[in-house]
Write a structure and sequence with these properties.
The complex is a heterodimer of chains A (210) and B (211). Chain A is an alpha/beta fold and 210 residues long. Chain A is built from six helices and six strands, in the order H-E-E-E-E-H-H-H-E-H-E-H. Chain A is elongated. Chain B has 211 residues and is α/β, with parallel strands linked by helices. Chain B contains seven helices and six strands; from the N terminus they run αββββαααααβαβ. In chain B, a hairpin with a 5-residue loop joins strand 3 and strand 4. The relative contact order of chain B is 0.17. Classes of the chains: A alpha/beta (210), B alpha/beta (211). At the A-B interface, helix 1, strand 1, helix 2, helix 3 and helix 5 of A face helix 1, strand 1, strand 2, strand 5 and helix 7 of B.
Chain lengths: 210, 211
């Protein structure tokens, strides 16, 4: 108890008057309860809501149709293997047109995949980064939605940046695929897709250096 | 000089400021509380730079646990007048020829995430013991013979055509499993997915461009 009630000395003799009590409420139980509730709420509250990464996949069609033609010199293939292995190569691996391109091992670090993507996407990345910086410094004052639309248009208009094909192997982990898509977002890659490996690429991945 | 006598006082501490502070904090936590939802499995989600929050409503979430069990969650709609979950269970019951009682439907409305075959659904909704209920969560079947997940997705889209699809998968699950789920959802006319990730800030500016 935080409060010790002292017994006051009664006056000698005289009438027994009802002593005027001090209007003091013992608040200890209330504080106890509040501390308990407070702890409960603090522990159960989810402060950081999880985030989402929005992915739009190309529509599936029942009828097989012509694959959209992609300029081979703009194509950057990212192959994801088991145990977090990442490889890339430029162009198309066509078994009818040897030699096959060599797989270059890389990783998801700043000096790995990101460096290559930034190099290939320099043009568009600079445009977007400059626009964002100008907004940040207050040189351009527009609403967020307008800015998003502007960046989207920049991406659509881009004609030189890489077209990235993310090709996960049967043993590739989900987190690697997410990491690859994440790099696309960081490097402002205009067009990318998740594609299945071709048989040739499967062979290439098998014989790739570990 | 007379000695100064210290008067013996009751060791009473004034707790009013403390109570004030506690009340303030308690009110704050009460009002801002968004409870960590109970989840059927421990799922470690990957990180990304995306800062977009998970929508609160019009959402179906497909959970893929590390052991490849599939769980499903669906929200009740923007306010209490929608009853999307109740409608979903009734429709699924019709599909699988199971009739649910109003009490079962009510229980389902508040049940949160679930992952079990339809044949166990009735039993699961009547189980009193939370531990037993958890044991019954064996994952939603997704094989080609008995693709119940496809029906859940289809019915959920019928009940609420605005429902988005979120995927909450463990980072260590092999991608073909995810791909199978994505294909299944795509065959129900959804081409947009929300991959649930944790936010991890990574800024790359003009200075990072390779020279």
């Amino acid at each position: 108890m935080a409060e010790i009630i002292q017994e006051e000395k009664r006056q000698k003799g005289g009438k027994k008057r009802p002593r005027r009590g001090v209007a003091r409420v013992d608040m200890t139980p209330m504080v106890d309860l509040m501390a308990l509730l407070l702890t409960f709420f603090m522990l159960t509250t989810a402060f950081s809501k999880p985030k989402v990464m929005v992915i739009t996949m190309p529509e599936k069609e029942d009828k097989p149709h012509d694959q959209p033609k992609i300029a081979a010199n703009r194509t950057l293939n990212i192959l994801l293997g088991d145990s977090d292995r990442v490889y890339y190569y430029m162009g198309v691996a066509d078994p009818n047109k040897p030699p096959l391109p060599a797989l270059i091992p890389t990783n998801f670090s700043k000096d790995g995949l990101q460096k290559i993507l930034l190099e290939k996407n320099k043009d568009l990345f600079t445009k977007i980064a400059e626009y964002k910086e100008a907004r940040l410094k207050g040189k351009i004052v527009v609403a967020d939605t307008t800015a998003d639309d502007y960046i989207k248009q920049l991406k659509i208009d881009d004609k030189v940046g890489p077209i990235v094909l993310i090709k996960p192997d049967a043993k590739a982990k989900y987190k690697d695929v997410v990491a690859a898509i994440n790099e696309m977002a960081i490097c402002n890659i205009a067009s990318y897709a998740i594609v299945d490996l071709s048989p040739t690429e499967k062979e290439m991945l098998k014989s790739a250096p570990r | 000089m007379p000695k100064i006598k210290s008067v013996a006082r009751s060791p009473h501490v004034d707790m009013t400021p403390m109570v004030d502070l506690f009340t303030l904090l308690l009110t704050f936590f009460l009002l801002t509380a968004v409870f960590i939802p109970m989840e059927p499995a421990q799922i470690t989600i990957p990180t990304s730079v995306s800062a977009k929050s998970v929508p609160d409503h019009n959402l179906m979430t497909i959970y893929i646990a590390p052991n490849k069990k599939i769980f499903f969650n669906y929200d009740n709609g923007q306010d209490t007048s929608y009853h999307y979950r109740a409608q979903l269970l009734e429709d699924m019951g019709k599909q699988y020829g199971i009739k649910f009682t109003p009490a079962e439907i009510k229980h389902f409305s508040n049940a949160g995430t679930f992952g079990l075959p339809m044949k166990d659904m009735k039993a699961w909704l009547n189980v009193k013991n939370a531990k037993d209920a958890e044991q019954m969560q064996t994952g939603i079947p997704m094989d080609s013979l008995d693709n119940q997940l496809a029906w859940w997705v289809r019915m959920a889209r019928t009940v609420n055509p605005y429902a988005e699809v979120a995927i909450k998968a463990d980072g260590d699950v092999e991608f073909p499993v995810i791909k199978k789920v994505l294909d299944l959802v795509q065959s129900n006319g959804v081409n947009r997915f929300d991959f649930i990730t944790t936010y991890d800030k990574e800024e790359v500016g003009l200075n990072d461009l390779p020279k």
